[in-house]
């Protein structure tokens, strides 16, 4: 067992050097690795089937209602524990929260909720499917924006937050709507993990997550850039799911890793890494998998991160994984 691991480490470290070398030819790697934008959102693969339909009450084509330029639109900060409406507040206690933004038109008195989330749930965005007929792990990891009429006050207020944080004009809202559609078309995959060098807030961030709270931060930033003041009376905390590692090394994409026999060992190692973590139906299963991944990572100190549809090796170090609920101020 020990012997096998040592041999594997040797083969892998050889490969990492090679790969790192080929990547660094273009000069210094930029950290955090920029999230890749696409020119349009591709159709989802029919293999990915949502257990719960995405955005059931939103407009099918993602249209956002047009507001009169002179309208005054209130902006709300919305936060509630993930799935808590279904499973009690277990996840609320460890602060896995979902974030959204609310809007209310003064002229029409209609209100709206805008959020960004996984098309096929968190488990599918965090762990791939190992399909026997395919060489490479298969990811159902798209995320998207959902805009729909109504704000469910009870849902947000009872175990979370519903707070007015600002006011914008109808013209500003219409500009924001265009930006959201652009952001939604070009930012297509969900990323659960934030990867950094250590828990010190000043440490290097290797990869940023791309999730519901990042969408909310981008939107607030856009609103602030339009000259709107955003103010909260309470601390604005958000969930972050961290991995801690030394400097990551680039491994390759599906075709370079899983399409070449020379990379067979690495391909097998990545599949083996993901083998025990199959996508899950329930949040309890997801939390169990986080514990499993924690054990595996502590023992082997390896993590294979999938980011921008490419694989990276993370040389993991203590405290390995952390879920925090920390303050990120409004812009
Ligand atoms: C995750 O993806 C699989 C494969 O498409 C699907 O069967 C399952 O329903 C998805 N899980 C959820 C919770 O949507
Ligand atoms: C974002 O894209 C998804 C997937 O194509 C779509 O269902 C949704 O309506 C879009 N949302 C917005 C606000 O454009
Ligand atoms: C949103 O509209 C619904 C339906 O009119 C109303 O019950 C609710 O209180 C409104 N919420 C906010 C935050 O404006
Ligand atoms: C808030 O949490 C309590 C306690 O877990 C739960 O019974 C209640 O249904 C939750 N409320 C909402 C609106 O989800
Ligand atoms: C982080 O950097 C800031 C500014 O350089 C400094 O004031 C602060 O003490 C640092 N924090 C830690 C924990 O090192
Ligand atoms: C995978 O990487 C190779 C080498 O960098 C590149 O030529 C190829 O276009 C990439 N494939 C995809 C699907 O991005
Ligand atoms: C919110 O974040 C701050 C600073 O990051 C932290 O001190 C505080 O305990 C957090 N609040 C909760 C309820 O976790």
Number of helices: 10
For the biggest sheet, the summary is: 6 strands, mixed
Q: If you average the pLDDT, what whole number results?
A: 87
Q: What would you call the quaternary organization?
A: single chain
What class would the helix/strand composition place it in? alpha+beta
Small-molecule binders here are:
2-acetamido-2-deoxy-beta-D-glucopyranose
Uncertain segments are 1-25
Overall 3D shape = globular
Helix content, binned percent: 25-40%
Rg over CA atoms, rounded to whole Å, is 21 Å
Query: Hey, roughly how much beta strand do the residues contain?
Result: 25-35%
Give, in order, the helices and strands: HEHHEEHEHEHEEHEEHHHEE
Whole-number total of structural domains = 1
First-residue to last-residue Cα separation: 52 Å
By DSSP, the count of extended strands is 11
């Amino acid at each position: 067992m020990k012997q096998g691991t040592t041999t594997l480490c040797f083969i892998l470290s050889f490969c990492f050097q090679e790969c790192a070398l080929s990547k660094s030819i273009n000069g210094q790697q930029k950290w955090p690795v920029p999230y890749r934008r696409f020119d349009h959102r591709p159709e989802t693969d029919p293999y990915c089937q949502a257990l719960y339909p995405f955005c059931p009450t939103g407009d099918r084509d993602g249209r956002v209602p047009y507001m009169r330029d002179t309208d005054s639109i209130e902006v709300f900060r919305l936060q509630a524990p993930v799935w808590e409406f279904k499973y009690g507040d277990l996840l609320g206690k460890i602060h896995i929260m979902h974030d959204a933004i609310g809007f209310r038109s003064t002229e029409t008195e209609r209100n709206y909720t805008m959020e960004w989330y996984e098309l096929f749930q968190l488990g599918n965005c965090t762990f791939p499917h190992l399909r026997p007929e395919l060489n490479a792990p298969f990811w159902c990891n798209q995320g998207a924006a959902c805009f729909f009429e109504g704000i469910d006050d009870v849902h947000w207020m009872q175990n979370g937050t519903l707070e007015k944080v600002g006011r914008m004009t109808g013209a500003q809202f219409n500009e924001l709507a265009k930006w959201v559609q652009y952001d939604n078309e070009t930012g297509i995959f969900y990323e659960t993990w934030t990867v950094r060098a250590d828990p010190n807030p000043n440490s290097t961030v290797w990869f940023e997550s791309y999730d519901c709270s990042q969408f909310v931060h981008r939107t607030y930033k856009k609103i602030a850039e339009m000259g709107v003041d955003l103010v909260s009376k309470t601390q604005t905390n958000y969930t972050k799911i961290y991995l801690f590692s030394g400097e990551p090394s680039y491994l390759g994409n599906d075709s370079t890793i899983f399409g070449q026999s020379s990379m067979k060992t690495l391909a097998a190692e990545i599949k083996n890494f993901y083998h025990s973590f199959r996508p899950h139906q329930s949040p309890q299963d997801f939390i169990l998998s986080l514990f499993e991944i924690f054990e595996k990572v502590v023992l082997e100190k390896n993590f294979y991160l999938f980011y921008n549809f490419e694989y990276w090796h993370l040389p993991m170090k203590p405290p390995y994984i952390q879920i925090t609920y920390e303050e990120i101020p409004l812009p």
